[in-house]
Amino acid sequence: MPLGIRRRGRAILWDVSRPVGGGNLDVAAPAEQPKREAPGPRPVLGLDGLRGLAALYVVLFHCWLYTFPGYPRSTAPGWLDGLMFGRLAVVFFLVLSGFSLAIAPARHGWRTGGVGRFLRRRAWRILPPYWAALAMSLVIAWWVVSPSHYGLPTAKSILVYGLVLQDMVTAPTPNGAFWSIGVESELYLLFPLFLFVRRKFGAALLVAGVTIPVIAWGMLAPGANPVEGANGLTAHLAPVFVAGMVGAGVVVASERVRRLPWGWFAVLAALPVLVVGVVRGSVWTVNHYFWVDLAVAPAMTMLIIAVATGRPAVLVRFLTTRPLRSLGDFSYSLYLIHLPIVMAVIHRVAPHFVGRGLPTFWFTLGVALPVSVLGAWVFARVFELPFKRNRSWKALVASVRA
């Protein structure tokens, strides 16, 4: 309780229950009871854990992909075939990105707080680690291992990937994982427009306005299944991003809505997609990612909603364990830098120690996986977390000096 002391005949109250600023006591107004600040919005727990697991799955997918040739036909032991759907982990990233970005606007009437401010903050958060990873990827591509069968990166690659234009312009890639950064960057540009539609016309019209043209485009393609290239994916993946955005409305929904069994809804929504994938096989699934992405997005959204509402409690406790929270904290760095490391181990190191196939896979898990995680942890502390924790150059410089 407050402790009263007198100075020069006036009572001064000290609030000893809430130290701030390095443990200093918070001085309240003279002769008045200290005012309690209104509690801020409840933090959404578990999202970092989901982000970390998705990034880890992408690493495992690439360990699998570059060890066993023949993709999308699997030449690996059948019990490893669950690792071949790395594309869906990236789709999950996009759903989770839409959800995470929309939480604050949902709490403030679906407003961004300023388009320019939003875009500057996104650039500040995303570009510095991306450019650092681009430089690292170019060095490894030119002097260690080629990043793809399309050839070595060129000056055009530096320009295209440096300006994050890879979803619009084709150029030899320095890092095969960078395709999604181009997609997400374009979705950031569309995000204020999506919020405007959500605010003015509602969630149903936003979902319909983004999804129906994509479905129509898909149906009009030869065989009703568009053949996807290395770019031009933003239009197709916009609906999964919007699904996450709309799902973020749960943070301001009534308690009745929040208590719905979202986890079971996610299972029920995922079952038809899973059954079709099992019946038709992995090759069909990979060749029909255009439709699979759209079909699985509702299940992914409801899974995120379930975690955001604290259920199932066992899963939330698991996702909020310290290792997973830490992994989620630098998951972006892990996604950015892991692939050159995995390819260098598979193509330059493993052949000197083990045979092809399963021995190379185990060797890659034992070497490339921990090196990628540890490297990403260090990389994040230099190129990502300082920009995540400081919102301006002035704050960043002050933090470094401190």
Structural features, described:
The protein contains 16 helices and three strands. It has helices spanning 47-65, 86-107, 115-143, 155-162, 179-201, 203-220, 234-247, 255-258, 262-280, 282-287, 289-308, 313-319, 322-329, 331-349, 358-389, 393-401, and strands at 3-7, 10-20, 24-27. It has a three-stranded antiparallel sheet, with no helix packed on it. A hairpin with a 2-residue loop joins strand 1 and strand 2 (10-20). Helix 14 packs antiparallel against helix 15 (358-389). The longest helix is centred in the last third of the chain and has 32 residues, at 358-389. The protein is globular. Mean pLDDT is 89; it is low at 1-38.
In brief:
The chain is mainly alpha-helical and 402 residues long.
List the helices and strands and how they pair.
Layout lengths: L2 E5 L2 E11 L3 E4 L19 H19 L20 H22 L7 H29 L11 H8 L16 H23 L1 H18 L13 H14 L7 H4 L3 H19 L1 H6 L1 H20 L4 H7 L2 H8 L1 H19 L8 H32 L3 H9 L1
Antiparallel strand pairs: 1-2, 2-3
Q: Over the alpha carbons, how many angstroms does the gyration radius reach?
A: 24 Å
Oligomer description: single chain
H-E string: EEEHHHHHHHHHHHHHHHH
Distance N to C terminus: 34 Å
Fraction of helical residues: 55-70%
Mean pLDDT: 89
Shape: globular
Identify low-pLDDT runs: 1-38
Largest sheet: 3 strands, antiparallel
Strand order of the largest sheet: 1-2-3
What structural class do helix, strand and pairing data support?
Answer: mainly alpha
Tally the helices: what do you get? 16
By DSSP, the count of extended strands is 3
- Strand content is under 5%
